[in-house]
């Protein structure tokens, strides 16, 4: 669903040191004590991680590896059909395993020679400024848990399948890597929360849920679409608008339901010319300037 990539279950540490992941009542694993204990265990590893140490290794269970394999098998034909060729080429170049969950260290070892990215662990939500600023240094905060086994093709929150199949395959493309790093450098430059939110919204409608015309067909390049079985069936039914930074940065959207409006680039070059140039040039005044141009403020 479109909430994927945004909604993280809160992670807290109790007074006794116990790390707890607070799943919502509608989460498929809400009533599964075994799953909840596993989520707590993986979140604790990330919470306790010292960034001076190697990224933690998770000993994935057979069931978790099966979820990964099932999703890889199911997504592969959809990618061939719906993903932009730039993503497909990058996915092939990265060559991640399809039969078991890769360690983040392995993701880094594969992607770094291609485009320079490092994957590090995150227990859940990473604060907006920290997450985006890290992108400017080609560091990607990734969760390590998997979705609930009862619904291998659905997750209400971004698990390692979203972070790696969606984002790492995308970031293995030099072009999407450059765009993403430019967004990160913008976050390092911007001071106001308003400008940062505007940037995050443009990112949402491009690198998370962006679509693009290719050879007369609408293809997806956004990680949120390409990591989601359901999304790939739906995106061509949405209202498709041309790239427009003003609209992308100001449109109100509901992350818990289908996003009815998507923005399509005519080509990768146009994506660079519009979104890339915005990332390279935006400043703290940009949101107000855009709103004035759109007559959203007096
Ligand atoms: Fe994402």
UniProtKB/TrEMBL annotation:
InterPro entries: ArAA_hydroxylase, ArAA_hydroxylase_sf, Aro-AA_hydroxylase_C_sf, Aromatic-AA_hydroxylase_C. It is an enzyme of class 1 (oxidoreductase). Its EC number is 1.14.16.1. Keywords: Iron, Metal-binding, Monooxygenase, Oxidoreductase. Residues 1-298 form the Biopterin-dependent aromatic amino acid hydroxylase family profile domain. Gene3D superfamilies: Aromatic amino acid hydroxylase (1.10.800.10). This is Phenylalanine 4-monooxygenase. Signal peptide: none annotated. It holds the Pfam family Biopterin_H. GO terms for molecular function: iron ion binding; phenylalanine 4-monooxygenase activity. Fe cation binds at residues 162, 167, 208. Its cofactor is Fe(2+).
């Amino acid at each position: 669903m479109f909430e994927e990539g945004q909604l993280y279950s809160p992670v807290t540490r109790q007074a006794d040191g116990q790390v707890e992941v607070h799943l919502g009542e509608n989460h498929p694993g809400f009533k599964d004590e075994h799953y909840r204990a596993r989520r707590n265990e993986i979140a604790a590893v990330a919470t306790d991680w010292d960034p001076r140490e190697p990224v933690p290794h998770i000993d994935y269970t057979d069931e978790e590896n099966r979820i990964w394999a099932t999703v890889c098998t199911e997504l592969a034909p959809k990618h061939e059909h719906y993903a932009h060729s730039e993503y497909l080429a990058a996915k092939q170049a990265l060559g991640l395993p399809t039969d078991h969950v890769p360690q983040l260290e392995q993701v880094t070892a594969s992607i770094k020679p291609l485009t320079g990215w490092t994957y590090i662990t995150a227990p859940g939500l990473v604060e907006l400024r920290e997450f985006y600023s890290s992108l400017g240094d080609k560091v990607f905060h990734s969760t390590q848990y998997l979705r609930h086994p009862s619904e291998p093709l659905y997750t209400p929150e971004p698990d390692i399948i979203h972070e790696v199949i969606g984002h790492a395959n995308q970031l293995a493309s030099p072009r999407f890597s450059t765009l993403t790093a430019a967004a990160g450098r913008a976050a390092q430059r911007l001071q106001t929360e308003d400008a940062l939110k505007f940037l995050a919204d443009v990112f949402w409608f491009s690198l998370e849920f962006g679509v693009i015309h290719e050879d007369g067909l609408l293809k997806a390049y956004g990680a949120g679409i390409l990591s989601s079985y359901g999304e790939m069936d739906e995106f061509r039914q949405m209202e498709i608008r041309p790239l427009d930074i003003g609209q992308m940065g100001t449109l109100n959207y509901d992350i818990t339901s289908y996003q009815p409006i998507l923005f399509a680039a005519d080509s990768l070059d146009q994506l660079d010319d519009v979104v890339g140039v915005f990332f390279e040039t935006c400043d703290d005044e940009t949101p107000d300037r855009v709103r004035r141009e759109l007559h959203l403020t007096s």
